[in-house]
Design brief:
single chain; 250 residues; alpha/beta; Purple Acid Phosphatase, chain A, domain 2; 6-stranded mixed sheet; 12 strands; globular; binds fe (ii) ion
Length: 250
């Protein structure tokens, strides 16, 4: 992950809500930040840029959402990956339509579902809305993508946190020598990602631990115990690079 040697790498631009202060209880912010990770993986011949967004939890279409759209649209990218928790209830659908109607249109967009999407009671309406805005939902399946001379797979699992993920179904038909980018709502899929030789895993769900208290760390990470350490940022586990995005919503 050396940012200086840039060629023949995959750049992941993670867009998330942040704060200049990590002081407890002041983390709520409309500031939209970008984190760039440059990953060198085998089989990539040209540079690829992926914008990764997650955890919109849309309860409105306000300053934060507009700033996020502006940030995303301002990045020169090859595709957009969205890793779930779009909404929390039916009301979120109308804000999702507002958000998606402002997003740059002619870029391939892939998404997976999160726990709140399942709990929203509006899963059918949500998936229809995503399809209406040309977002391909990868629920335990994959698609072969081509960017320049690169061929790779975008793999998606349905939400691991609520037990809907099935990585074996998701990887059916993949050519082993091609790079794989796995989208999953929760980082707890990491062991399966590693054992199935996934190149890059993009996840969300943790919100960076909600509130980071200096010297104590993140007090609430909604993950099973062995995975709580994967709270935010990039990780390397054996040959798999994982990026856990803190997300846009709260
Ligand atoms: Fe979640």
């Amino acid at each position: 992950m050396d940012r200086r040697s840039f060629l023949k790498k995959i750049l992941v631009a993670g867009i998330f809500t942040g704060s200049m202060s990590s002081y407890p209880f002041l983390i709520e912010s409309n500031m939209i930040l970008k984190s760039e990770i440059s990953v060198k993986i085998g089989g990539i011949k040209d540079h690829i840029t992926i914008v990764h967004i997650t955890d919109l939890h849309l309860k409105g279409y306000g300053l934060r959402e507009k700033a996020a759209v502006k940030q995303i649209n301002g990045i020169k990218k090859d595709l957009i990956a969205i890793t779930g928790d779009f909404i929390e209830n039916r009301e979120g659908i109308k804000y999702l339509k507002m958000f998606l109607s402002e997003l740059e249109n002619n870029i391939p967009k892939y998404a997976v579902l999160g726990n709140w999407d399942h709990w929203s009671g509006s899963l059918k309406e949500l998936t229809q809305t995503l399809e209406d805005y040309n977002i391909k939902i990868l629920s335990n399946k994959n698609v072969k993508e081509k960017v320049g001379s690169n061929e790779f797979y975008i793999v998606g699992v349905d939400d691991p946190y609520t037990g809907h993920s099935n990585i074996q179904n998701a990887i059916v038909g993949i050519e082993k020598e091609k790079p794989t980018i796995l989208l999953a709502h929760s980082p707890q899929i990491i062991d399966s990602a590693v054992s199935n030789n996934i190149s890059i895993l993009l996840a969300g769900h943790t919100h960076g631990g909600q509130v980071n208290i200096p010297l104590i760390g993140a007090p609430f990470v909604p993950l099973p115990e062995p995975y709580k350490k994967f709270c935010s940022g990039p990780y390397k586990v054996e040959n798999t690079i994982m990026y856990v995005n803190r997300g846009i919503g709260t």
